Amino acid sequence: MKAVAESTTLIPVPVEGTPIGLTQGEAAIRLARDGANALPRQRRRSLISIIVEVMREPMLLLLLAGGGVYLALGDLTEALVLIGLAGFSIAITIIQETRSERAIEALREIASPRALVIRDHVRRRIAGRDVVRGDLLVLSEGDRVAADGWLLADNGLRLDESLLTGESIPVSKVVRVGECHDEPAPRPGGNHLAYIFSGTLVVAGSGLCRVAATGTSSEIGRIGQSLSTLETESPHLRSQTRKLVLAFAIIGGVVSGLAVLLYGLLRGGWLDAALTGVALGMSMLPEEFPVVLAVFMAMGAMRMSRVRVLARRAAAIETLGSATVLCTDKTGTLTENRMTVIQLKLPDGRVLDHDGEAPLPDEFWQLAELGILASAPQPFDPMEVAFHELGRVGDAGTSRRADWNLQHHYPLDPALLAVSQIWCTAPGGDEHVIASKGAPETIAELCGMDPAERAAVAAAVDAMAARGLRVLGVAEARWRGTSFPATQHGFDFTYRGLVGLQDPLRASVPEAVRQCHAAGIHVVMITGDYPETARAIAREAGIPSDTLMSGDQLAQMDDAELARRVCDITIFARVMPEQKLRIVQALKAGRQIVGMTGDGVNDAPSLKAADIGIAMGGRGTDVAREAASIVLLDDDFGSIVTAIRVGRRIYDNLRKAMGFIVAVHLPIAGLAMMPLLFGLPILLAPIHIALLEMIIDPVCSLVFEAEREESNVMRRPPRAPATALLPRALVLWSGVQGAVALAAIGSVVLWSRGAPVVELRAIAFGTLVGAILVLVLVNRAFNPSIAGALLRPNVALAAVVLAIALVLGLVEWIGPVRNLLGFGALQPGQMLVACLAGAAVLVVLETIKWRWRIGWAA
């Protein structure tokens, strides 16, 4: 009963003319008919589907097959070890997958919005997904609007619509005349002044709203549907990895089959032949590829988070190194989003540079005061905050607004870039002052200026904008009466001057832009600011400012013409948020790899269409963050460049790991083949290879991932997207490494072939482990250096070497473990020979690397 009491509040029976909400029964019928007020979710994977996907891993199948062969041979211990390893891997993977699915579902439930509706004359707090068309929403300060609808009652309601419009200035709405129980949303271009959008935030006041659209029918829902038509490109590295594993699996399968056939025909013992085939298949299958890729992507995401960058998709990390164009907005990304009024200019040409401290002369204070009057009394937008701050430090003592009352607000409209507010100058009177501020060209239009006057204003704006200032025009009008015009055009405005606001460039931006240019990345600034302001900021940031395109010019071009010209443009000014998508598509049509920043809902399509969508974590909306592949927690352009540097490092280290994997499997496969070629006993059984995988996997996943970046990581051009993960030169180099290592190991084995089988197997295994460590050292860097290979700091490598030493110590000195693996105790001379073989491999390979300068890292 307590829960019910908290979720429902009785209200008086409405009088005639008061909006009436739905009944619970009507709401249930509409919910069943129209569906939930939510966007479609991706279908959750079942436990069965996860198990089936896990069981498709080839290495698990080979472990199970090896266990089956040992059972057939009657070796229960070996069989249980292999089957236990396979079962453990399967269990861990299934647990991780199911926990991830449950965590995601729980987060969705937590994030589900709530709504206060009137049903059966009672206020009820319900889940946002249960809101239906026709519901009566009660809106209060701090609420997130749950659905689109018509405003029926208004008590000082002000809404932040920045997630849709990109403008952070709170807007007011007008009350819908007449009841509208089932009236649909306004058509595009229709009257939106009485219409409220889902997802907007109530920043002040309260009101009542009749729901007109829910779910995919809402404005956010339509944007979500447009996002669903944009395909998210699949990770290129993942598809490459699958192809590599498939190619190696086919080759390994053919070789294993031939080995089984030859072993059985030449030496008899088909079970031993099957065991040799399983071991050879395991040795040739590079199952580490997908594991290493997954670990590198996860660790890469963690490393990026340390520099205040969240990578939401693995594809973004691998694409960062390919980025050729980086499109960035200005405010808050290149600049600090901290506005300050530093210049005021009167119509007669007089200019005041304000230092932020001295009181303003009377004539300039009147201009500043009009800017304050045109701003929200409780400012939210940085520009309006700057006007109020100017009022606190620059008041000359002539304020006229101490007892004025705000009567009406004309919000910003994409078709009219100005905000006007009506103030009553005396309580109960009909004398009003209208203060307006906005784009200078819009203010000139409202003031009815002739061409000569407009040209003079434009010249003054250009002079201020050339200093990098954001320039606003200010105008004033008078009105008598209590009935106001429908639009701002109904007033007789008088031009009062210009105000220049400065948003300082972030200190890290010039160096970050320089690094982008050095790395072959074309930086493009996209802003809604005046062109000359954009040019000035671009010059300060180091972005070429000689090629600029305005939003009006862009709108007049067809897609083909835009695609021809867009690659040469460095600045887009006076651009609307929805035009970003055209810019992205035009750049991609020119075969560019595009990174795009954005923060609003209208930015979401361009973020998803870009190769790398970058959302602002500080001021960005949830929809933008969901559409993006990368989120900047500090909204700083320098963080993007840092992410590119980290991304290139990750890709380099991934290639080092992949090259090592190819190299290390050759001596393993060679040892598995030596018994057949030289008449030796079986040297490597499946259990030995499983043990080796326990060494190789952490080496690949930890050591190479932790390697520091190459010295030229930001001094080389972006790699082509189609570049092979393992180019021919790198495959050939890996083959040379494997062949040299196999030659050294084979020489040691053949030198020791007279030893007992258990000792021969132990010397082969020990020499192989030493060769694996040498191959790690060789692949740590693309540049040749024996000292660098040995002394280059890497904490992960030290930990792995220590762990391997402990494992070898257990194998050598713990009798039960040694007996389980079929090893014998090694003599000091045999250990010395194994160490010398490893040292010889290191010297030979570093010498070849120094002599063979064909650029396998390119």
3D architecture notes:
The chain has five domains: 153 residues, Calcium-transporting ATPase, cytoplasmic transduction domain A (Distorted Sandwich), CATH 2.70.150.10; 65 residues; 157 residues, Rossmann fold; 163 residues, Calcium-transporting ATPase, cytoplasmic domain N (3-Layer(aba) Sandwich); 198 residues, Up-down Bundle (Calcium-transporting ATPase, transmembrane domain), CATH 1.20.1110.10. Helices cover 50% and strands 15% of the residues. Strands 1, 2, 3, 4, 5, 6, 7 and 8 form an eight-stranded antiparallel beta sheet that branches. It starts with a helix and ends in a 7-residue tail after the last helix. The relative contact order is 0.08. The N terminus and C terminus are likely disordered.
Question: How is this fold's topology laid out?
Answer:
Blueprint: H1 2-7, E1 8-10, H2 24-34, H3 47-55, H4 58-73, H5 76-111, E2 114-119, E3 122-127, E4 136-140, E5 148-160, H6 162-165, E6 171-172, E7 195-196, E8 201-213, H7 219-228, H8 236-267, H9 270-284, H10 288-306, E9 309-311, H11 314-319, E10 325-329, E11 340-345, E12 351-353, H12 362-373, H13 382-394, E13 405-410, E14 418-424, E15 431-438, H14 440-446, H15 451-465, E16 470-480, E17 494-502, H16 509-518, E18 522-526, H17 531-541, E19 548-550, H18 551-555, H19 559-565, E20 571-573, H20 579-589, E21 594-598, H21 604-609, E22 612-616, H22 622-627, E23 630-632, H23 637-678, H24 686-703, H25 728-751, H26 757-778, H27 786-791, H28 795-813, H29 815-821, H30 828-851
Parallel strand pairs: 10-18, 10-21, 18-20, 19-20, 21-22, 22-23
Antiparallel strand pairs: 1-3, 2-3, 2-4, 4-8, 5-6, 5-7, 5-8, 9-23, 11-12, 11-17, 13-14, 14-15, 15-16, 16-17
Helix pairs in contact: 3-5, 4-5, 4-9, 8-9, 9-23, 9-24, 10-23, 10-24, 12-13, 14-15, 15-17, 16-23, 19-20, 23-24, 23-25, 23-26, 24-26, 24-28, 25-26, 25-30, 26-30, 28-29
